[in-house]
């Protein structure tokens, strides 16, 4: 029964945590018995079971309970199969979504070598606009996961494609994550490539795209500031924070000590 398999998936994370805490007693139980079940349920015929399996996998990754070897030899291969060009549409959409969500939890090497090539392919998927939209919505997270060199070499060309996509929802998603993408690039790329691209979005024929671009204008401009003098930085949760200069805090005892936080457009969209 699908409901039984779904319930089983919901119990996997707490069982895994218990086994982790009791590792001397159960050194290999999770890797031998539970992890294969999670991987298998990612391809279950029932979508609720697959969803429960995906959520369980993300919790396990977040808790750092999955070994690097299992990630590279079991999890990534099945996601690559599910997101292949000839894969079923529903499976492909789910696989793209889970790839984007897990990218921030994996090592940069794993993401760049195993998942980034497929992500770039999916950005140009001409069959399913849902796939391209997921890629666009999570573009900033992928850039952050792989770093500046891979972003400028592989991802920026794909970002240009998505920013000129015929579906306005794609262009809107790009406008919303523009700050996160810009923050990952060098000042020269921001000035010479991303600035003209942003102008095209802020002049888009669709008012929803223009509105999203105007909302991202301030955060995008902030990426041009020198963090050491302006105190601007991006937190891990995707928010833009402004840290008051130390001398100002010392000179004014009435000034609040808490950081001023401005939610980035990509975080608002999430």
TrEMBL record:
Gene: Ppp4r1_0
Classification via InterPro entries: ARM-like (IPR011989), ARM-type_fold (IPR016024), HEAT (IPR000357), HEAT_type_2 (IPR021133), PP2A_Regulatory_Subunit_A (IPR051023)
Residue ranges of HEAT repeats: 115-154
Keywords of this entry: Repeat
Designated name of the protein: PP4R1 phosphatase
Annotated Gene Ontology cellular component terms: cytoplasm
Highest taxon of source: Eukaryota
SUPFAM superfamilies reported for this sequence: ARM repeat (SSF48371)
Gene source species: Melospiza melodia
Entries under Pfam families matching the protein: HEAT
An example molecular function term from Gene Ontology annotations: protein phosphatase regulator activity
Signal peptide: none
């Amino acid at each position: 029964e699908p409901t039984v398999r779904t319930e089983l998936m919901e119990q996997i994370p707490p069982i895994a945590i218990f086994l982790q805490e009791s590792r001397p007693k159960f050194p290999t139980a999770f890797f031998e018995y539970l992890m294969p079940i999670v991987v298998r349920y990612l391809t279950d015929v029932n979508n609720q079971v697959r969803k429960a399996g995906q959520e369980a996998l993300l919790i396990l990754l977040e808790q750092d309970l999955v070994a690097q070897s299992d990630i590279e030899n079991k999890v990534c291969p099945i996601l690559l199969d599910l997101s292949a060009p000839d894969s079923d549409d529903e499976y492909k959409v789910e696989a793209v979504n889970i790839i984007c969500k897990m990218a921030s939890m994996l090592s940069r090497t794993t993401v760049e070598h195993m998942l980034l090539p497929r992500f770039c392919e999916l950005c140009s998927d001409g069959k399913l606009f849902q796939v391209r939209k997921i890629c666009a919505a999570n573009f900033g997270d992928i850039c952050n996961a792989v770093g500046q060199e891979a972003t400028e070499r592989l991802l920026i060309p794909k970002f240009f494609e998505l920013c000129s996509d015929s579906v306005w929802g794609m262009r809107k998603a790009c406008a919303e994550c523009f700050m996160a993408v810009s923050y990952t690039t060098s000042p020269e790329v921001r000035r010479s490539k991303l600035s003209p691209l942003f102008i095209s979005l802020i002049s888009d024929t669709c008012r929803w795209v223009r509105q999203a671009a105007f909302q991202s204008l301030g955060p995008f401009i902030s990426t041009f500031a020198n963090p050491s003098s302006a105190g601007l930085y991006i937190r891990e949760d995707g928010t833009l924070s402004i840290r008051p200069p130390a001398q100002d805090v010392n000179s004014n005892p009435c000034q609040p000590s808490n950081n001023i936080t401005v939610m980035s457009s990509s975080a608002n969209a999430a």
